[in-house]
Amino acid sequence: MARWCYRHRLVVLLLWLGALFGLGFAGSTAGTNYADTFSLPNTDSTRAYDLMKKAFPERSGDTDTVVWKVDDGTVRDESVRSRIEPALAAIGEMKGVGEVTNPYTARGGAQISENGKIAYAQVTFAEQANSVPKELVQDVVDTAQDAQRGGLRVELGGQAITRIQEPPTGTAELVGIAAAAVVLFLAFGSLFAMLVPIVIAVFGVGTGLLSTQLLSHVTNVPELASLLATLIGLGVGIDYALFIVTRHRRGILRGMKPEEAAVAALNTSGRAVLFAGGTVCIALAGMLVMNLRFLNGVVIGTSLTVVLSVLAAVTLLPALLGLLGTRVLSRRQRRRLAATGPEREQASGLAVRWSSNVQKRPRSIATLAVVVMAVLALPVLSLRLGATDQGNHEASSTTRQAYDLLAEGFGPGFNGPLQVVTDGGDAEGLVSRIRSTEGVAQVAAAPAVRGVTVIQVVPTTSPQSEQTDRLIDTLRDEVIPDSGAPAHVGGVTAVSKDFATVTGDRLPYFIAAIIGLGFLLLLVAFRSLVVPLTAAVMNLIAAAASFGVLVAVFQYGWGLDLFGLGKEGPINAYLPVIMLSLLFGLSMDYQVFLVSRMHEEWVHTRDNARAVRVGLAETSRVINSAALIMVCVFLAFVLSGDPEAAMAGIGLAAAVALDAFILRTALVPAAMHLLGISNWWLPGWLEKRLPHLAVEPREEREEEEAEARAEVPHARVPDGGVHARVPLDKGGEAGGSVVHGFVRSADGQPVGGAVLNLLTQGGRRLDRVTSLADGSYIVAVPFPGTFLLAATAPSYAARARQVTVSDDPLVYDVELEADEVDAVN
């Protein structure tokens, strides 16, 4: 498929452009139909809501609030009324406004505070907030605030008002893409190579968002799904393209033609991308364990975007590589390639030095990493789940100002009243008991309709206060049962509390599901019990530390003023589920990328220290670059103006940064050094029953070379997808040992195609092999003793060295120079 897309690049590009513009046209024609509904079956707030629907048909329009305050006199003064009443009348006459409740009418007396300094009016639109035209909302805001003068403040609050405070759509995305572009340019040094991952991400996210928008007409999809789909789509789209482009550029630098390099990159890194994308989708699907209908649409939107991002990476990307040819390299690299020929790409000096330091000091580095993560995780012990409201908006916003004015004039609980709904029974007795309950500021009962009475209860504390939560429990557990009336506690504040309770109760099952799934995937991929167990522990550590950062910022308020993120409050109840899903998927990507290289080295050498050192040195740069891009994209959503988006962005940025820069770069390799060969332990009975899952394909050349090793009778032993040939003794049982290592030039470059012969002291050949492209080799030794190991390669003279082999494998690296073969070890 990669070759076809490369050769038919214009067709592939036109198909993707057609899909993007076709979906764009359909989306603009159909519009959106997002449904932000929380379905919490079998909860008290849902029963209250059902009773209210029975008695009071649901209003179709959104209700917002106009609040004003005077410094001197009262709001009843003629000088104030003469400015406010004409503004309210003008608002009421606007097309799209259904009703305006005026505090200066006979029924509006309760809308003026006791001291007469603050009053409010309610503006009911003809449609819900998401459907109200922004131009109309802006006209309402401008008309109301035109009434301001010295000593008279006018502020507005509500969902429709919140929408016009948001920065222009796309600002956060553009900033994130720009930051990612800088990182890509520094990593590649090429403008064209930088653009390719960004184009892939734009096509993946664009088609994903437009498809989700169309799906919102046939199923319930919350608006939050579009935000999270953009977050994860940009991150994985750029990262997946980064992995493939890096492998493609490496192939060209090593002398491959651009087409063959692209095919090889898609056949190796492309397979890893398919595996990684699948794990992200599986992790997202884990949200279904929560059994919350609100999250079903989130799973649909985010998973669809990830799937389309992966599809773009494996089809559109090779087409773009075909259009670019060698221009995917920088000019300097192209000139050097033309002048000196193919080169061997090596890990950078910094990566090699760090990897060596981890090997030398695993205990110190592991201890330091654990301490850092533990300190960051401490705030998670005080985690409170809840919901944000306009009281968490930035202090300068009109919605926050209106919220504070209402709290000042009518009490903190006025912004989140409770609704006690009773169907029959002694409503007056219930009202009396509620009024005498501690924590209740005001109680008012509406006339019964169809036997249903709604009692409005204003707490003395704010909607996000722990005291308000305790009041809800007191009403449900003590006041209502003692009254004997069948009643339920509802309202936005009660719904938020129930949602947080349900989420907290089901969260352990969700965590167990995704951790268990990750364990099984890594068990099959690496055929080890310790590697997936280590990964599971690391995922839990990363989750705890990232939530600790989230609590410190948004619940404790540390740094909120610096970021301009408003006021502290509880953590949104749905955020742990979404963050854990995304963190699991992304950390699986990094774990697979890191450990697969270690596993490859382990299969070749059976030297755990070397495998961990080489794997970390050769993958840390790409992992850190990919993580840095993710962090830039996620942090950019702080600029969205939406507290929920900012919370998700900072939480995910912290999770990815801690996972990549501390866990995968320090703690994981340090732990693997300490565990030694136990990393790769798997019981024989389990090995036989596990299916074989190849993240990357086995090299054909390796198979051909393995078949050529026929000088001594051998048994083929599968080992993680790579076949070693073990000598057989006279009885046909596996016996003897092996000599293995790497063939390198004097300057440390791997030498592929070198022929190695193992000879007895008398000159009889026992085994003959050819080194692989990375310089690795394995020769079989039928019995312990001293032998001659001879190596030859084009442009190198043949030399031999004595090697003494016992019953254990011997690691022996060969260094080729102009006139000798010498041992590195």
Automatic annotation (TrEMBL):
It is found in: Cell membrane. The lineage of its organism: Bacteria, Bacillati, Actinomycetota, Actinomycetes, Kitasatosporales. Belongs to the resistance-nodulation-cell division (RND) (TC 2.A.6) family. MmpL subfamily. It comes from Streptomyces montanus. Its main location: membrane. SUPFAM superfamilies: Carboxypeptidase regulatory domain-like, Multidrug efflux transporter AcrB transmembrane domain. Signal peptide: none annotated. This is MMPL family transporter. One of its GO terms (cellular component) is plasma membrane. Pfam families: CarboxypepD_reg, MMPL. Keywords: Cell membrane, Membrane, Transmembrane, Transmembrane helix. InterPro entries: CarboxyPept-like_regulatory, MMPL_dom, Mycobact_MmpL. It is a multi-pass membrane protein. Residues 39-364, 458-681 form the Membrane transport protein MMPL domain. The chain crosses the membrane at residues 174-193, 224-246, 272-292, 298-326, 365-387, 507-526, 533-554, 574-596, 622-639, 645-663.
